[in-house]
Amino acid sequence: MATVKNFIEELQWRDMIHDVMPGTEEHLLETMRAAYIGFDPTADSLHIGNLVPIMLLSFYQRCGHKPIALVGGATGMIGDPSGKSSERNLLDEKTLRHNQEAIKKQLERFLSFDNEAPNSAVMVNNYDWMQNFSFLEFIRDVGKHMTVNYMMAKDSVKNRLSGESSDGMSFTEFTYQLVQGYDFLHLYREHNSTLQMGGSDQWGNITTGTELIRRIGKGKGYALTCPLITKSDGSKFGKSEGGNVWLDAKRTSPYKFYQYWLNSSDEDAAKYIKIFTFLEQSEIEELITSHQEAPHQRALQKRLAEEITRTVHSQEDLDNAISASNILFGKSTSDHLKDLDAATFLDVFEGVPQAEVSKEVLNDGLDIIAALVEQTGFLKSNGEARRALKENSISVNKEKVTDSFKITENDLINKQFVLLQRGKKNYFVIRIV
User: Fold this and answer.
1) Which residues of 395-415 are buried (b: 16+ CB within 10 A; e: fewer)?
2) Three-state secondary structure call for residue 49
3) pTM of the model
4) pLDDT per position as a tens digit, 59-84
């Protein structure tokens, strides 16, 4: 018998259980079991809203069980009505396959796909078994086992039909729970998957699958859902001013990713560190206690941001993100600035006033007073610039300068930027064109 740890216990102390079907814990303690979670492949990157199901699968594998990540190629062509007011865009097969490969690379940061291990993770795409399933076969072999009354009773359907702004629900969307339910039946038959997990809004779809396993497969399936993540201030988890916080570094830079977690409230950080890190319970409890004693040091937020940035990206990306953060909020030098790539530099100084200056101006060196006033308007007058320089409050690329200083090509960051600074908090970026 395979040695397994108590997965339900692990989720309980991490506050990651919303609903669980009776008998699930006992079922999982008997031996290694396969379980799956579905992922929407409508983009070539997952975002942090997907991190809860990813962590569920990762904890599941760490407890000795076999995780299955299902990419919803077929269901992605339909649209899931759960909590949504309109149907999603439908994608072609080539795009879906590309997205599937990109998603697998991201999942490999959390799951072991080592085929030699008995509990190796597996990725499947429901398009592979649904594409040749004719409509007539589906309504004959699957549809006849479910009553309309049963399907109408699901919250996801009722919410769409009763919503004030709803234009109703298409038949395509209405059948979604049958297609997802059939996935569970298929994986039960082909991969011996006896458990499906997901967010609390998926309970109806998951239990439809357990019903199909009972009625068609003559077997027993189990269901487990976790709470939907909310933020203490009422704003939506996983969203920043720029939209989704993505796992792909090209969509959301490691610096911005790190900052998202660093800016968590105390209440949220105490919740997130249980869900989004692999730290043990005792260490988390110690962190929370020490944070409560000195909340101004934000030790909890820093550890949370470090752990999750390292897992999603890399140690190098984490080091760069911390270094970039110190440029604004800590002690740093011109060397730290010059180590930043252009994208991270722009992320760090997003919202800081900018001005474009012609490269020719640097040929004989750009006088610092002209740089502060005439070329940029950072300061209002030459007199104000002279006073600031005399007070030793002007820096170029984090280094104090005097009124005799001239900016040359040697001062350029990434061959295109110069950072002006007055005092500790007033910044201005010159972009050389």
Assistant:
1) bbbbeebeeebebeeebbbee
2) helix
3) 0.87
4) 999 999 999 999 988 876 665 555 45
